[in-house]
Design goal:
Largest sheet: 9 strands, mixed
Shape: globular
Strand order of the largest sheet: 5-4-1-8-9-10-11-12-13
Distance between the termini: 11 Å
Number of domains: 1
CATH topology: UDP-N-acetylmuramoyl-L-alanine:D-glutamate ligase
Order of helices and strands: HEEEHEHEEEHEHEEHHEEEHHH
Strand content: 25-35%
Number of helices: 10
Number of strands: 13
Structural class: alpha/beta
Helix content: 25-40%
CATH architecture: 3-Layer(aba) Sandwich
Length: about 300
């Protein structure tokens, strides 16, 4: 399926959620430390990339659609660097600075083409700053074709239930990449996209596809969700909606890095839905997009040409 590129270029997506800086230190490993049985990495290259909801927005821009990003960052040097990277990526940024918050950083140390360790720096945003996000969200809402909430569990979406209600009242399509065990806060959304481990944490494990379907449909109906898309890595994706169940097999390819694959999937869905096609039509293309991006290292994006080649 190929969509109208002009419609995609005109699509406007508002991404709301937690943002972070993905920092990579690359180096060589030649010896083991005499202080402890750990490798010594001689760092020879450093790279910073935008992550979490910012990476979702960057995926939307890379596909050709228009992305606005609403989030909170710390009033620190990392936050200012992250802000600049976001703006340079072609994303329209609406960022609130929190003087008490430490901007989230995920530092990955890479040696011999393998991730040796990840170090996280983070702290939650203040309630007052989060309240101001809702006011700004209300102002931005009328201009959008689709609303995408990217929940990374860092505290930036404390008012998501209110925001979903506002979006639905304005007849906007709402997509959510969920986090945690309480999905009641996502009630009323048009689509949520849990992965396998995330859904198990909410509905429990399943032994058969029939049992999975029953549990997923029960969850969807209880929360008044129009669609639930389960992403299953090498098992592909399964969509549960009012029509029943639709399964899309994974596209066989070498997996290099699964970091950020979920970001690409939901960004592709939002871009396509924002351009006017249905979620059922968009799912196979989102599956393809996820399959492409796992062949790249780290948080990555795909282009319109790659998706429709």
């Amino acid at each position: 399926m190929r969509i109208n590129q002009e419609a995609l270029l005109n699509a406007k997506i508002l991404v709301v959620g937690d943002v972070m800086l993905d920092r990579y230190w690359y180096g060589s490993v030649e010896r083991i430390s005499p202080e402890a049985p750990v490798p010594i990495v001689q760092v020879d290259k450093e790279e910073d990339r935008i992550g979490a909801a910012a990476n979702v927005a960057y995926n939307i821009v890379s596909l050709g659609a228009n992305a606005s990003l609403l989030s909170v960052i710390g009033d620190d040097s990392v936050g200012r660097e992250l802000q600049q990277l976001i703006v340079n990526s072609g994303i329209e940024a609406f960022l609130r600075f929190d003087q008490e918050m430490k901007t989230t950083v995920k530092l990955r140390v890479i040696g011999r083409h393998q991730q040796l360790i990840r170090i996280d720096f983070e702290s939650p945003p203040q309630k007052e700053v989060l309240a101001s996000l809702t006011d700004l969200f209300t102002q931005l809402l009328p201009q959008q074709d689709c609303i995408l909430f990217s929940d990374y569990g860092k505290g930036g979406l404390a008012h998501i239930s209110t925001m979903i209600g506002l979006a639905k009242s304005a007849n906007k399509t709402v997509l959510v990449d969920p986090k945690g065990k309480d999905y009641s806060k996502y009630a009323g959304a048009d689509l949520i996209t849990p992965n396998k481990s995330e859904l198990i944490a909410v509905i429990g494990n399943w032994k058969t596809e029939q049992e999975l379907s029953e549990k997923a449909q029960n969850l969807r109906q209880s929360l008044q969700l129009k669609n639930l898309l389960l992403t299953r890595s090498e098992e592909g994706m399964t969509l549960f909606d009012e029509q029943g169940t639709m399964h899309i097999a994974a596209q066989a390819r070498e997996v290099f890095d699964v970091t950020g694959a979920g970001d690409t999937v939901i960004a592709t869905l939002a871009s396509l839905v924002g351009s006017g096609i249905s979620i059922r039509e968009a799912v196979p293309l989102a599956n393809k997009a996820g399959g492409i991006v796992v062949g790249k290292f780290g948080t990555a994006t795909i282009s319109y040409e790659e998706l429709f080649a």
